[in-house]
Input
Amino acid sequence: MTEIAYMIREDWAQQGTGMERNSASIRKWLGNDRFALFVLAARAYLKDRPADREAAGFIGASAQRVGPANFSDLVAARDTPLRGLTAVALHPYRDEDVDALRTSVANGTLGRLFVMVWAPHEVARMWLEAVGAVNLYTGSRHEAPDDVMVEAARVMVSEEYNGLESGHGKDAVVGLMRAFRAKGYPSDEKSWARAFLVAGGSLRSLESVRKFAAEIEGGTRHRVEPRFREGIVDILAKRAKDGAS
Output
């Protein structure tokens, strides 16, 4: 199982005053192993990626790195000598880059993964919080998504083949969110987004999940067809309990 940590760039930099101190914390977490460096564009790293080079230089990649390599190379690394190594991923912000990290973790490709997140609002941070990565700036982990909400999110994932923006997918997402809200579960978009990510939902459908959660919390009454019996939350709670036992 991959150990994961992260830091948000603005926390790391502290307007130029915290780079050395926070980089020392990162190096301590990484340990003494050589680490592989992953970036958006390896070919442009030396010429056009000054922010990547700055972070790598402070962390110590100039002395220890394997790479730099592209995020996409993580997927291909499953059966290569990279397997089991520690990796540093700098500033993943595109969906495909975050998906590459998710795949490497799901496959157990890497022993340890540190991610420098470019900005606080990015999907990369939401995924890291969802999977319980440690924030090296605060030393804490975000609370794990509720198990029953994750079970509901798995139902949403099963509807992804037709899309979640409309039709049966929308019926399922909105119906479940309404049922859980009525039972007093968290109903904000971030809680549902984290549950959806843990359940294996795609980043393509994540925006629909976030949108419907925000709209329901804001009072929007969506026109949907009923998909579930009245006791669906209790059914999913039992399923979650049975799965944990």
